[in-house]
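[Automated response] Your request has been received and processed.

Submitted sequence:
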Amino acid sequence: MSGRRIIAQISDLHIKRPGELAYRHVDTAAALARCVAALNRFVPRPDLVVISGDLVDEPSREAYDHLAALLAPLESSYAVIPGNHDDRAMVATVSRDRRSERTGNGSNRTIDLGDIEVVLLDSTVPGNDYGRLGPETLAWLETTLAASTTRPALLFLHHPPFATGIAHMDRQNLRNAGELAAILRKHWRVRLVAAGHVHRATLTTFAGVAATICPALNHAVALDLDARLPPSLMIEPPAFHVHVWFAGDGFGSVVTHWVPIGDVDGPYPFFADGGQRL
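Generated structure:
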């Protein structure tokens, strides 16, 4: 449909080697299989699925091969960016979408969706859980956003550039968020900043731009707003995000939907065939 683009976002897959559970409790492979089935049922089909980091729990060729097999049934094009649990070089072998330009380490990418541009940033720091955008990435982002003054852009990265109030996760967020904010304030064509990492659906603004964290399709980081509590996980209803960009004045607008994964009751019609309200 002209004037609308649909991007699904899934995040923090944490795929293990076949037969292994994450944290002794979570079957992340089964969770991804359910998510792929839900994405394949989604109508209309997304223009793109962005997988925003932590594709595997511990990087190994076996884990990435397992991931590739689990993603093989996905009917939409998808693109990936690394998270702190990933190996950057191995991640680069996974993505199915090649409508992009790459730079430097190969993880910073742009994807052309016609009306809009999707910008994927690598925020990983090898050997560390926190994120940082390196000088090369920041320079590339500045050049990329300066290339147009009229075309909307949606930006995806793994580490949130804002605090959530969950202390042990906030210590792992994007360390140089101020440098990213300075760039975004110069280039208002960015309509969304979408992250992962925290395993919770979260909404705020960052540098005057709508900003979200994608929920996880397996386990959630517990909503511990008391910093004295130990880091823990919860098995909450799994979900993913669907970002819908609509053409309009200026750079258009973006609406983000939280989409549950799994069997739910319905749909039931509001109206009978004759138009009467049921």
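Summary generated for your ticket: Residues 4-260 form a domain with the Purple Acid Phosphatase; chain A, domain 2 fold (CATH 3.60.21.10). The longest strand covers residues 239-246.
If you did not submit this request, please reply to this message.
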